[in-house]
Amino acid sequence: MARYSDAVCRLCRREGMKLYLKGERCFKEKCSFETRKGKIPGQHGAGKTKKPTGYSLQLREKQKVKRIYGVLEKQFRLYFEKAESKKGQTGHNLLAFLEQRLDNVVYRLGFAASRAAARQMVMHGHILVNGKRVDIPSYQTKAGQSVELSERSKANDFVKSSVETAAGRGIPKWLTLDAAAFKGQVIAAPTREDVPLDINEQLIVELYSK
């Protein structure tokens, strides 16, 4: 499966904002986004000061959202087509589909410090949905489903540390968490207000609607 394998901190600098791709490191002073703030990656990054066009703004917004959720182009396009065919605002539907991914739910519940780490946990069989193992990161969770750690994962020190700091990040209101039992539940579908990210989804809609 194709995945981005270069330094992920470059992605934050390219998008001009923290995407929180490395978990706890993103909150520390040694975060390269802070130490190299304002410097676009690449040999000629410092000279890239041209005023962005409408298309470039739309493209950058799409790239930013793809990178936040760790989704590649083909899959992202499929999410958009599903969002477009569903009743409601396309941009809001798109974000809801991305939020309901199992790897994102694992991250939102605090079982992992980043979405990349959450994806690994899912793929390695550490996550149960309604008591059954699910190893597909893109699995779409639904209201009423429970998401919990397998027994062998509950003793993991990294998981314990992540759950302890989850309260600081905050648990979205469409999820509930029983930290002691390492178990969460999806109680509703996420709304736009439940996505606390600096995203202008309308730019993505405009890009794909051309």
The poorly predicted ranges are none
The CATH architecture of the largest domain would be Orthogonal Bundle
Order of helices and strands: HHHHHHHEEEHEEH
> Which topology of the largest domain does CATH recognise?
Ribosomal Protein S4 Delta 41, Chain A, domain 1
Mean pLDDT: 84
Total domain count: 2
Oligomer category: single chain
How far is the first residue's CA from the last residue's CA? 29 Å
Q: What is the β-strand count?
A: 5
Class of secondary structure makeup? alpha+beta
Gyration radius, to the nearest Å?
18 Å
Structural key phrases:
Structural Genomics Hypothetical 15.5 Kd Protein In mrcA-pckA Intergenic Region, Chain A, Ribosomal Protein S4 Delta 41, Chain A, domain 1, 9 helices, 41% helix, 5 strands, globular, 5-stranded antiparallel sheet, alpha+beta, 2 domains
Question: Would you mind describing this structure in some detail?
Answer:
- The chain is of the alpha+beta class.
- The chain folds into two domains: 9-42 and 51-98 and 197-208, Ribosomal protein S4/S9, N-terminal domain (Ribosomal Protein S4 Delta 41, Chain A, domain 1); 102-188, Structural Genomics Hypothetical 15.5 Kd Protein In mrcA-pckA Intergenic Region, Chain A (Roll), CATH 3.10.290.
- It contains nine helices and five strands, in the order αααααααβββαββα.
- Helix 4 (73-85) packs across helix 5 (90-99) and helix 5 crosses helix 9 (201-208).
- The protein is globular, with a radius of gyration of 18 Å.
- 34% of the residues are buried.
- The mean pLDDT is 84.
